[in-house]
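Okay, is this right?
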Amino acid sequence: MVSQKDRTQYRHLSWLICAVLICICAFGSVAYAQDAGVAISDAAIKGAEELRDMPVASTVRLLVMLTGITFLPAMILAMTPFLRFIIVFSMLRQAVGLQSSPPNQILIGVALFLTIMLMGPVFTEINNTALTPFMNGEMETISAFDTAMIPLREFMLANIRKDELDVMVNISRIDPPQTLDDLPNAVVISSYILSELKTAFIMGVKIYLPFLVIDVVVANILLGMGMMVLPPVIISLPFKILLFVLMDGWTLLIRMVSSSFYGL
């Protein structure tokens, strides 16, 4: 049998081994953290030295690029057909009666790629006349921005309604411009957004009406049959989906929205 004295010695030995292991782990972690900290510090110092050695023009171009990437989502929303596409798609989903199908990610993806397809000529012109010369150091920042805005302004002005443009000119409190080229960019962009909202809602109402007729007919039939407890949406939803599929709804919808820009 193990005596009480031996048990005490074993217990002390166990505590000693645990203490040694804890010290090894602690000092090892500290050493690893110090090595990692030194590596990170060296990388930061090296990056700072490279940034310091860069020419001022290159640094400014890099800063402008990062700023442009930050504002890129807002530009896609404000100055492209994306706004009209996403509103029409959302109103279509509500008109059919589907709450989450197709999901928002799918609608955003479809609207984004359709926007890229429609804006292809504009983006190509911006790349050839503004972005590439700016990256090559052949054009200053302000000149590159003004050059890039020319095709965007032409696209937006071609899709702006006169009423919305007059409203924005009055709100901005500027002198009446002699030509459209005299309009500030803020007025053009605001007028374009307001025009897109109006156009998208008009299209959405036109899409909504056929499905609304189906809902009214189904509701009257259920009311005449005395089935007032049964929600009409449960019965009308399959008919609305069937109607949309049989009439090739997605193709017609995308063609309608796209033709409203370029008359396809």
